[in-house]
Design a protein that fits this description.
Two copies of one chain form a homodimer. Chain A has 15 helices and 27 strands. At the A-B interface, α10, α12, α13, β25 and β26 of A face α10, α12, α13, β25 and β26 of B. Chains A, B: InterPro entries: Metallo-B-lactamas, RibonucZ/Hydroxyglut_hydro, RMMBL, RNase_J, RNase_J_2, RNase_J_b_CASP, RNase_J_bac, RNase_J_C.
Chain lengths: ~550, ~550
């Protein structure tokens, strides 16, 4: 287990395989792993990361394409393990750089991706594959293996080159009785393991969680009890890609004589796709429009919507804030059939509190088994290690604490510590003569998408935002005549976010005027120097008088 | 269970008791309940609330003293149930309005409060009381009852007036084998219950959690295992007021031949107080200074510090960021022996990831039983309801979801729904002729402390901060000569937090100049109107060209 300050990697030895991640190690999201062999590159997944509160105003965070930007012509293909945003969301941004990179993935994965590419007006070359299929992509032979996850049609990939075999699990768990009967292909894992797997890249998300993830089916009796007790309307929020969860709700609605409507753009779109492709099975007449649902008795209706993470603009938040056509009251039941992504607690509880205050009965994972995770827990990971018997392990998909916990699981089933590689984004691992080791580092950072800008917003801009957001700003404006050495307009003070009365500034306006006049009289003619003097005076005043540290923006213009 | 838009309460009937909260209902923190009888007021607790991410830059949130501001002379006393910030933190701010209000509480509670009052340079009148004691405070007779909580010396209060008996649990749980042997006084609760309790105010914090809180002692074997396995230094973070938790760590250190040092201002101060008063028992020679500890072998030392909530300036965060004299490596063990307060997840996990990356073994409530809650779970609450047999219940201390869950527990043990009162802050409940009901509402809001300002920062200022924090601002400055109808200086553009190049603004600067010149030529002489025109133009440009919505601050000064 190594990590530290590393230098640029050496040239890749002939016949060796190189692996590095441009995102997804040490964080949850923006998964993207690059494989290099014989001068060619293969990319597995290309996802986005969602910002947290220290990254205000940011829409998305992309993997850093920097290390491969000059080598896009060497890319054989992008292989997508499944259709979640953190695995496919950055594909449009990569295709903007080279549109004809072939995309490989299962039908549902590619269908969700197509919808996204359409929004970006990108027409891609894509090839849908099924579990069991093997594709030759330049020097890479890629076998796709079925895995079970919180979205249908997920796959692991085994990548074979002359250097050896790498098995990448993607996101997975091992529900032994999944709704679609498609279980994680342990037989395939075993076959590969018996033949010899040089490196196993393993999902770490739930490595800290002991035991086994319950089956998706274990939710059925809980939903049944909720439906049985519900007197009024049922509103259920979930992830817009969780086809099996929605399938269960639709079936439960049928059993209890309720009709179902979808609300929310992504929910409507994804369920349409899943239904068209046969992943979502809907008995005739079960699904109605929201308008039709509104004409029905409350106790015959179910609304399925987005907003389970407390997103302020989503339907559920707006209902909780009484800012939506749908109103809820004491007879209604709200179900948040979803995980609670760390960092979203305050938003989610704000929604739950709002709904509870309106009298609704709120069922969520904190008080009922209405969600099971999509990622293998520690118990499942042990099975995988024992079946695959990998020569090396690289824990992937997780924050550092998850990677570390996964490393400990690998070690607990007998894998030597020096064969477990904990790597950060950009850390380069080479497989040479059957031995994998860290050989260097390629610089990768966070690439922010904000409005139309990709990569333009830097950490310095975010630091400014955090300062402005915590303290507000004071702007001091004056126009000076350098020749006459006098202030011809202002000083005026404009402050936002401070919560101070206008009169509070009277004192300091006078002080600034004196400073400007004295400085001009002393022969200062540099506006930058004048601005610095004003900045210091105002900063000192607001810190002493009000114990604040706003951003101070002096603007001295020459008339 | 009622709640809604209410009008001002009627005059209080003679012989009736009035209860309303100025904070602490529908939120966790700033607990403060006012009791009124015969024209006199009694206050139970006066705490602060800590801000969340939608309240950037705010230091503290106080209860709204507005409804009693004109009646401070009627206040008989402030009764404090225990020494946590959310119960005592706002006392200095109330005493600023009337310094001689008597304070009653246990010794430890008052000692923690004194330290705080000293910082505010306030000298208070205080009376320490012990469990079992009864104090006459004007028309109120107040009995103090021992309760068990995550701080020693916590108490419930029974308030008797001619109108009836109210039992207020404060924060409590029911550890049956607490470290100090001081169990929640169920015998007292039973005696009061048998005599008749008109209203029970009950801690709701853990009402959503089924079962019973494990004993503080259940942590011992876990700590023992941690100490046994630890090869290097042990660093343990906890709340600075959790005397019993720290007691256990000190004893464990003794058993394993390690010395203990405290780091962090509040930890050092509180443990000093607790030790002086005999609440913390320290075998001779166990405690050393940090300097002494640094001279000892790692495997003979334990550092106890603050920062268990991921506070960025606390010792633990700084160690994780390698920004502290204490460095950790692969042999060291870090223990977060604390809860994870909702909203702090990202900060806490950031610290855990940082420490894990340095190679340290991080033990926290997510992977070991190193914390037990201080609040009664659903199982314990049922005991209390059945023992007290209250005529009415008002769930307190919790977000709305907790109050509601507590109401359901009360109902499940046979209390009629119309005797369970769910009230928001400011909702007024009168107890008249043995019957309690909601009679009106007194307006209460959130009072923000920011630097030297108490109540000056409004929600409008916070809205500005949020906008600035997400989008930054563009300031456009120009000086105009109204007589000559010309622009004499500028326009200049200053932007912060946008992450746009300076050249990006060239185009719009020209456009603003044209707008100003044309407007002046058209005879516009109102700077406000000029500013509006500039604002619209710049807003439209940045939205169209960059898909951003920063704050736009046009400043046109007259030269």
């Amino acid at each position: 287990m190594i990590h530290g300050e590393l230098s640029a990697p050496p040239e890749l030895a002939p016949g060796a395989l190189r692996i590095f991640a441009l995102g997804g190690l040490g964080e949850i999201g923006r998964n993207m792993t690059v494989f290099e062999f014989g001068g060619r590159l293969l990319i597995v997944d290309c996802g986005v990361l969602f910002p947290e509160e220290t990254q205000p105003g940011i829409d998305l965070i992309l993997p850093d394409f920097g290390p491969i930007r000059d080598r896009l012509d060497d890319v054989e293909a992008i292989v997508l393990t499944h259709g979640h945003e953190d695995h496919i969301g950055a594909v449009p941004y990569l295709l903007r750089l080279r549109q004809d990179i072939p995309l490989l993935g299962s039908r549902l994965t590619l269908a969700f991706l197509e919808a996204k590419l359409k929004e970006h007006r990108i027409k891609a070359r894509s090839l849908d594959v099924v579990a069991g299929q093997v594709e030759r992509l330049g020097p890479f032979s890629v076998e796709f293996l079925a895995v079970n996850h919180s979205i249908p049609d997920a796959m692991a990939v085994a990548i074979t080159t002359a250097a050896g075999v790498v098995l990448h699990t993607g996101d997975f768990k091992m529900d032994q009785v999944p709704l679609d009967g498609r279980i994680t292909d342990l037989n395939g894992f075993a076959r590969l393991g018996d033949a010899g797997v040089d490196i196993l890249l393993v999902d770490s998300t739930n490595a800290e969680v002991p035991g086994f993830v319950p089956s998706e089916r274990d939710i059925i009796p809980v939903l049944d009890a909720v439906f049985l007790r519900a007197e009024g309307r049922i509103i259920l929020a979930s992830f817009a890609s969780h086809v099996h969860r929605i399938q269960q709700v639709i079936e439960m609605a049928g059993l209890h004589g309720r009709k179902v409507a979808f609300v929310g753009r992504s929910m409507v779109r994804n369920m349409g796709i899943a239904r068209d492709l046969g992943y979502l099975k809907v008995p005739g007449g079960t699904i109605v429009t929201v308008e039709e649902l509104n004409g029905m008795p409350d106790d015959e209706s179910v609304l399925i919507c987005t907003g389970s993470q407390g997103e302020p603009m989503a339907v559920l938040s707006r209902i909780a804030n009484r800012d939506h056509a749908i109103s809820v009251g004491p007879k209604d039941t709200i179900v948040l059939a979803s995980s609670l992504i760390p960092g979203n607690e305050n938003s989610v509880y704000r929604v739950i509190n709002g709904l509870a205050k309106l009298g609704a009965n709120v069922v969520h994972k904190g008080n009922a088994l209405v969600h099971v995770s999509g990622h293998a827990s520690a118990g499942e990971l042990r099975y995988v290690y024992n079946i695959v018997k990998p020569r090396h392990v690289i824990p992937v998909h997780g924050e550092w604490r998850h990677l570390r916990a996964n490393a400990e699981i690998a070690h607990s089933v007998g894998i030597d510590l020096d064969r477990i590689i904990l790597a950060d984004d950009g850390v380069v691992v080479d497989l040479v003569d059957g031995r994998a080791s860290i050989v260097g580092y390629v610089p990768v950072g966070l690439v922010y998408v904000d409005g139309a800008s990709v990569g333009g917003v830097t950490d310095a801009a975010l630091k400014d935002r955090r300062m402005l957001g915590e303290e507000g700003f004071i702007s001091i404006v004056a126009a000076v005549d350098m020749i006459e050495s006098k202030v011809v307009a202002g000083p005026e003070i404009h402050a936002r976010g401070l919560g101070l009365d206008e009169q509070a500034f009277d004192e300091v306006v006078g002080r600034v005027r004196v400073i400007l006049e004295e400085s001009l009289a002393d022969g200062v003619t540099d506006t930058y120097e004048l601005q610095q003097r004003v900045r210091r005076a105002v900063g000192k005043w607001v810190s002493t008088s009000h114990r604040r540290k706003p951003m101070i923006v002096p603007v001295i213009v020459e008339a």
